[in-house]
Amino acid sequence: MECGRTLSPVNVAYETYGSLNREGTNAILVCHALTGDAHAAGLTDIPSAVWSDTPPQPANPGALRPGWWDGAIGPGRAFDTEKYFVLCSNFLGSCYGTTGPASINPATGRPYRTGFPQMSVRDMVRVQRALLDHLGVHRLVTISGGSLGGMQALEWAIMYPDLVASVVPIATAARHSAWGIGLNEAARMAIVNDPDWREGFYTVQPARGLALARIIAMISYRSMSSFGHRFGRDLQGPTDPATPEQTFKVQSYLAYQGRKLVERFDAAAYVYITKAMDLHDVTTRRGTLKEVLGEIRVPALCLGISSDVLYPAQEQRELASLIPDARYAEIQSPHGHDAFLIEFDQLNRIVPEFLNSIPAS
Ligand code: COA
């Protein structure tokens, strides 16, 4: 690993959609963001819950969950499974089947927790590369993802230029901004200051801290106007202003989102992944930003989101200006950063226009 430590064994959970051609040259890798998983498309009965070796049994048989990019992967969609072999893997350090802090450390028989080596985005990409070798993929038509997914796409273009034909980084960063690091630090502080954290060797999730971390993040994923339109000053529950239980709708929404993450995500994985995002900097041990991005030889489609306050559109424009064969396009949306998980019609229009200029195999 980049940190100098060795990690073994490493499991990788992945899903694929469409068919790989005989030459192994029609693949597309989609990379998930912070709390995502390998289930990018279609429906699964595997519940969204922390796991490391074998997928958890459906708690609620018959309950099917769509993939996080289901609206963008499939016949006629942005990543067309009639043409391409689309794959998505849970990245190193996460908690959905790929080895991470919640996995059992073979040396101790207990979860790694904070004994896990700090992985980097480059380590995640190296694990993906090993998966591709295992699957017989010799060329990636493109690599795409939003946020941390886009960071992986950029590293791919730099680390393995011979395997990559193009990249589509969305709402991301070539190096994590002070703004992004600050928000991640607030989230980590919420987790590690929860008494249940116990220096990372918890036996029950530090639920209050993890929920607060999610709430901080959820605010940054939207925008002032989207919260305004959606919730305004609406109340949920009792409407008598004298009643102490009176809650604004936005409070209820955020509390719900916090609880939901606690049920499905591991606190130590959250700490490690946010740290990996903060450490992400394509220039590390390589050169200046201009030099490093200037050496990306493949075509790039850099996608910004008009209302993103976390990875602003301006940051994506700068990225496009420094990659020689890059074009910039913008998703028009009031939904903020989360628009890359919502605005499928726009993705399905913009991405194929670009991919049609890249040989499909
Ligand atoms: N009180 C309590 N719960 C509420 C609520 C309120 N006032 N308003 C909505 N909800 C609940 C809904 O019941 C629904 O619950 P469910 O998920 O159990 O079905 C949930 O909130 C819907 O969330 P919402 O944000 O409204 O969904 P959306 O359709 O606007 O957005 C996603 C879809 C996928 C973007 C969003 O659900 C999500 O997961 N956002 C975070 C994704 C993320 O991690 N982004 C960061 C990438 S770096």
Quick structural gist:
With 361 residues, the protein is of the alpha/beta class. It contains ten helices and 13 strands.
Question: What can you tell me about this protein's structure?
Answer:
- The protein is α/β, with parallel strands linked by helices and 361 residues long.
- Helix content is 34%, strand content 13%.
- The chain contains 10 helices and 13 strands.
- Strand 6 and strand 7 form a beta hairpin.
- It is globular, with a radius of gyration of 20 Å.
- Bound molecules: coenzyme A.
SSE inventory with pairings:
Elements: E1 14-17, E2 27-30, E3 43-44, E4 65-66, E5 85-89, E6 104-105, E7 110-111, H1 121-135, E8 140-146, H2 148-159, E9 167-170, H3 178-192, H4 207-221, H5 224-231, E10 235-236, E11 247-248, H6 249-264, H7 267-279, H8 289-294, E12 300-305, H9 313-322, E13 326-331, H10 344-355
Parallel strand pairs: 2-5, 2-8, 8-9, 9-12, 12-13
Antiparallel strand pairs: 1-5, 3-4, 6-7, 10-11
Helix pairs in contact: 1-2, 3-4, 3-7, 4-6
